[in-house]
Amino acid sequence: MRSSAARGELPAVIANARLTGAGRLDPFGDDPVDVHLAGGRIVDLAPAGALPHRGPVVDAAGGWVIPGLWDHHVHTVQWALVAQRERLDDARSAAEAAAIIAAAPVLGDGRRVGTGFRDALWADAPSLALLDERTGDVPTYLINADVHSVWLNSAALRREGFDSSEAFHPGDSGLLREEPAFEISRRLNAADPLLGDRLVVDALERAAARGIVGVVDLDMAWNAEAWARRLAAGFDATRIRFGIYPAQLERALAEGLATGDALDPEGLVRVGPLKVITDGSLGTRTAATAHAYPDDPHNHGVLTVAPGALVELMTRATGGGLACAVHAIGDVANSHALDAFAVTGATGAIEHAQLVAHADIPRFARLGVSASVQPEHAIDDRDMTDAIWADQTAIAYPLRALADAGANLLFGSDAPVATLDPWAAMASAVHRTRDGRAPWHPDQAVDATTALAASTAAGSLARATLMPGDVADLVVVDRDPLTADEKALHATGVQATLLAGRLTHAL
Q1: Overall pTM surpassing 0.70 (yes/no)
Q2: How many CA atoms lie within 13 A of 500 on its CB side?
Q3: Alpha carbon of 361 to those of 160, 326, 379: distances in Å?
Q4: Taking Cα atoms as reference points, which of 445, 449, 435, 441 lies closest to residue 484?
Q5: DSSP codes of every residue in 332-388
Q6: In angstroms, what CA-CA distances link 163 with 80, 141, 424, 507?
Q7: Are 102 and 134 in contact (CB under 8 A)?
Q8: Please, are residues 231 and 224 in contact by the beta-carbon 8 Å criterion?
Q9: pLDDT at residue number 166
Q10: Residue 442 DSSP one-character state
Q11: Confidence grade of residue 98 (pLDDT, cut at 50, 70, 90)
Q12: What sign does the dihedral 343-347-351-353 (CA atoms) show?
């Protein structure tokens, strides 16, 4: 790509581009076009060279222009801090994970922190004795890939004050699950806010280089303050919608925060939904399910928010103008979440929807509840799902079923649980595989048109084609995402990303 416009500039034209998308109304077909921009919007689509170029030009050189991409579920600080944490993704046992973290560098605050382990299929079990033996007196924290459990050594438990706390004591395993684990993550994430801010900005600039123009930030913090601070420091890489958690709901209502309200004059950072976590996760074996987990007939997961309490929270939020984002992974949690949307009239989404009862699939569309899903999880978790949810009768990762029923799909990564890469998400949704393995439940794959739309701001039911008048949140890529195969989608090259016409990434 040749360009007379650099990052931060406002090009007047994206020249020599091609358009794609289902249901296009333009007359150009595969012919090259110029996309003319002004005032942060598309003002014209014209045959290449038909109109004069007045101002800086991005030469697409035959690349495709598509709407800007969104990640609808990110924990920004936790994701950004992964850059400082030891990766445990490849650990195949508790002993191996303990050995990896024992060799990890000690951070400036005197701790070792690792992230990304998946213990559900390990032959051995995490234990406090094993971790203590390998890590000694250095406070050591291993965060599960799903973030719903954390494995600590005795030094870390003492540092956090959990060694003598009956409510949080992990027993012989050293594992904390659900709310105690979230509390550990909150403390680690808040240790150095200014460092966290720098890493968040760096990470979102890298995301712009993958075509991202916006993220929904669901960090477990008072995000209004954090984003006001980042804006004051000059943040301008992507659009942000930030979540509010139940512990902060009354503060948000008292301050008059409503979904869609902007923190800045340009509307770059806006208030998002109330986020409520109502059950656990597959990997931690705490997602609330109708059928018990293997080898544990008493374990049906946990409902971390009772149905009545969920209705109360959503009623308060809806009355104050907040949409709702309800974490529900198991089929029981999804049923209760849909019930709460029906009773309260709340708007918003169910986050994850990883296991959904057949009878609940059509309720998403009937209630106008979006399914905020993470296609990469299906591929990452395929072996765990086959082993742990083998006896479940609900549908696992039901992308096609939800789409066919008319639900609006919103794609995301849940970063750091999965890598923030919209092309990987689309590839997983369309092809249901990775690394040459046979597709996993290919009947739940969606078509590329649906996947692309689900990766944009409004989701799969919205138009993912370009027209004059559209906000110029745009991406120039080196291939047509509607015709690329699985490997080609992963390898998509982003030539330019524009946010309201301003270049946030340019080659």
Answers
A1: yes
A2: 10
A3: 42, 16, 21
A4: 449
A5: HHHHHHHHHHHHH---EEEEE--EE-GGGHHHHHHHTEEEEE-HHHHHHTHHHHHHH
A6: 29, 14, 41, 52
A7: yes
A8: no
A9: 57
A10: G
A11: very high
A12: positive
